[in-house]
């Protein structure tokens, strides 16, 4: 199902909630289900089509920074940060520099 079909077949309030609260949903996943579920869910959200803007991601960035500091060799966290940078370089380049200054 493409984004057009999803938008047409899903109640407007659900589409609005899902598109405006990505970050908050990911934080809740991290708090209640843990790191692995958070990383899996973050990967899904971060790889959404570019037409879907990511909102309220500040807390997600903080979680990724914390995870990167705990284990600088964690390739899953590094890949997520690189995907964010690729998706929106202006918004996330600072995050990459802070976490992986040698990359």
Alpha carbon gap, first and last residue: 36 Å
- Enumerate the spans where pLDDT stays under 50 for 5 or more consecutive residues: none
Mean pLDDT: 80
What is the helix fraction of residues, given as a range? over 70%
Give the number of helices. 7
Helix and strand element order: HHHHHHH
Radius of gyration: 14 Å
Number of self-contained structural domains: 1
Category by helix and strand content? mainly alpha
* Total DSSP E strands: 0
Approximate strand percentage: under 5%
Shape: globular
Please describe the biggest sheet, giving its number of strands, its sense, and whether it closes into a barrel.
Answer: none
Topology readout:
Blueprint: H1 3-9, H2 12-20, H3 22-33, H4 35-46, H5 58-70, H6 75-87, H7 89-99
Overview of this protein structure:
The chain is mostly helical and 103 residues long. The protein has one domain (9-99). 75% of the residues lie in helices and 0% in strands. It is built from seven helices and no strands. The longest helix is centred in the middle third of the chain and has 13 residues, at 58-70.
In short:
With 103 residues, this protein is mostly helical. The chain is built from 7 helices and no strands.
Label this structure with key terms.
single chain; 103 residues; mainly alpha; 0% strand
């Amino acid at each position: 199902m493409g984004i057009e079909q999803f938008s047409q077949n899903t109640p407007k309030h659900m589409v609005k909630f899902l598109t405006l609260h990505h970050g908050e949903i990911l934080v809740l996943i991290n708090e209640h289900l843990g790191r692995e579920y958070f990383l899996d869910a973050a990967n899904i959200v971060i790889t959404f089509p570019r037409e879907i803007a990511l909102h309220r991601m500040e807390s997600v960035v903080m979680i990724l920074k914390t995870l990167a500091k705990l284990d600088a060799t964690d390739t899953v966290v590094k890949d997520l940060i690189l995907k964010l940078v690729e998706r929106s370089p202006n918004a996330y380049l600072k995050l990459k520099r802070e976490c992986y200054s040698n990359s």
